[in-house]
Amino acid sequence: MKVFGIGLTGYIGSVVVEKLHAAGHSVCGLARSETAAQELTAVGVEPIRGTLGDVQAIGNAARTADAVLGFSTGGFLTSAMAPGAADRYGSTVSCILDALEGSGKPYMQISGTGFWFGNAWASPGLVLTEDIPPQPPYFYAGLLAPHDAMLKSAHRGVRSLIVAPGQVYGRDGGYIGPVARRFDCARKHGAIYALPPGQCGAIAYVHVDDLADLVLLTLDHGKAGEIYFGTTDTVPSFELAQAVSRVCGFSGRVDCLSEQQLAAVDGPFSPGDFKVNLLASSVKARQALGWKPFQPGVLECLRQMEGRVDIASVYPEKKRQAMARTVRL
Ligand SMILES: NC(=O)c1ccc[n+]([C@@H]2O[C@H](COP(=O)([O-])OP(=O)(O)OC[C@H]3O[C@@H](n4cnc5c(N)ncnc54)[C@H](OP(=O)(O)O)[C@@H]3O)[C@@H](O)[C@H]2O)c1
Fold first, then answer.
1. Does ligand 1 lie within 6 Å of residue 33's CB atom?
2. 0.85 exceeded by the pTM?
3. What is the pLDDT of residues 194-203, one digit of tens each?
């Protein structure tokens, strides 16, 4: 199968590329810079120059592919709020759906349980399932229209599929999410800050390799217009902070702050990381697709990092990703 992907140089996309090649597929990918083109070429992916919203390049690539994968929604948080970012993402999704109309070919687009953050925030005990309409946080509101277009496109003869992972961990880690934010806190302050344990919830995670397996299974067996949650491990956020503290050589010490203090020293998302219960069920993916995740959980992966990693080079900020590629769990 010839697969066209967007976001294949990223944390999740690059692991999916490995699995696509291992399964015997050929892969081409959108490259928005010369650096991205070189990175894709180096791993055997044919680069196609363009960026989100370049509907001609993206439409042509989608038409000539057997399957399309989208791992970029145009940026995380602030950049998703940049003028035009949501429109560029929306026009990308529309042009892929148009290109595949009537072909029955699969188009998988990544989402995330964070897209249901509003539901979780309003109902702390809720375990999310795919039939619950998402209430995205304000910085993802612009992604609601493309999400709906994906779901409604099943009747257009496109096998449109959404995979919504929990927070992703494993290998050298990405730069998105609560684990990365705890490492950033340690790097910036030489300490791990948290809310007191009694005020902390829990978050559902998935290992990047298990997620990549889920993406390939969805391509093969996913049903048109369906969402599949990908979660494997639910971890209390205070325990996660203690585990990162041990990796950082702080012996599990966590300094508890008030919500206002935490936001001031550790950024506006930090209190939310600790307060929210972001729980989701992956029963559907396991039953309908035969997904069998087998990677170690978050706490075990963090334990394996103790005493053997340079904390400047794991769960990196974007600028640190090149260095982080030398680290493997
Ligand atoms: N990581 C997580 O914990 C997590 C959890 C749930 C959902 N997700 C979602 O999964 C997706 C991928 O996450 P990730 O961690 O793999 O992110 P990532 O490492 O930042 O990768 C993003 C990818 O998208 C590409 N990209 C970004 N903007 C683009 C644009 N305007 N045009 C073309 N390509 C563009 C990047 O290419 P360059 O090489 O050019 O930068 C890179 O290949 C995101 O939508 C994220 O919200 C992630």
1. yes
2. yes
3. 999 999 999 9
